[in-house]
Amino acid sequence: MLQDNPYGYNPQSGGTTPSSPSPTPGGSYIPSEPSASAPSAADRSTFPSPAVPSIPDASVINPLGGASTVGETFSPGAPVLDQPDVDLGGAKRRPVNKKLAIVLVLILIVVGVVGGGAFALLSGKLGPKTTPPPAVQPTPTPEPTPVPEPTPEPEPVPVQSNDDVRVSNVDVLATGLNSYFSLNGMYPGTNGDLVHVAATASPCVELLSLNLIPACPSDPAGEPSFYGYKSDGVTFELTAKLDDTVCARSGAVAAGAICLYKVVGPLQPVPEPPPAPGPEDQ
Question: I want to staple 240 with a disulfide (CB 3.0 to 4.6 A). Which of 118, 166, 198, 254 is the partner?
Fold first, then answer.
C-alpha cells in the first residue's frame, strides 16, 4: 500500500529524489532538507500538502509508546521518545509477608479439619439410621453322641428236650402224691394195676381236687406215649419212657431195649401211728 508523500513533492515533475531521512535516537526518522535540485516553492504550491488532522480536547495515545497532550498534533515524522511504563496498579507491590502466609495456611487447615469433623458428626446423627445386620452366631458344633455299649444279649434258654420235660412232669406228680399222703395217710390206689396218667383218672383226680398240682401233665410226644402210675395205697410207682438210648440219666433204668425214668414212693417214711395208751397213762 502506497503512503502519501508528506513533503508535497511530486516525483513525476522531474525532481530528484530526496535523500533518505536519518534515524533519530527515538527510533523515528526526520526528513532531510531538500537539495538544490528540488522543485521550487511555486512548483510545490501546485501540489497541496496533506492536511494533518488535529485532535482537540483529548489525549492521544501514541501507539509507539508516547502520549500526546491536548492541543498537540501528531506528526508521523516526529520522534518518539522513550516513555516510562505506565503503572496500571497505581501503587508498588509490597513484598509478601511469610509469617502472615503461614498463619493463613494454618487457619485454613484448622477450619478444614473442624468443618470436616462437624460434617461427619452431623451426617452421622442426622443422616438416615440404618439397622445393623444381625450378628451371625456361629453354629455350635454338636458334640459327638456317645455310642452306648451294646447290651449283652441274654443267654438263650437251653432247648429243653422231651426227656427233660418228662423228668420234670414225673417229679411234680411225685411231690403231689407225697403231699396227698401227708393229708390222708395213704396214696390214691389203683389195686396195683398200671394206669395211664390222665385228668380223669388217678392220681390226677385226687391231686387236682386238693390243688396239690397246677395241672395234670402229659407226655410231650403225645399219644401213644404216656406216663404210668400204679399204687396199692401204701406205695406208688411213676414211670416215663425216655428217648435216651444210653439210659445214663439219674433215675433212669433200662428195661430191655427201653429206657424208663422211674420214681418209687413213699418219698418219706410213713409216720408210725401213735402207741395205744397203757395202764400207767390211764
Answer: 166
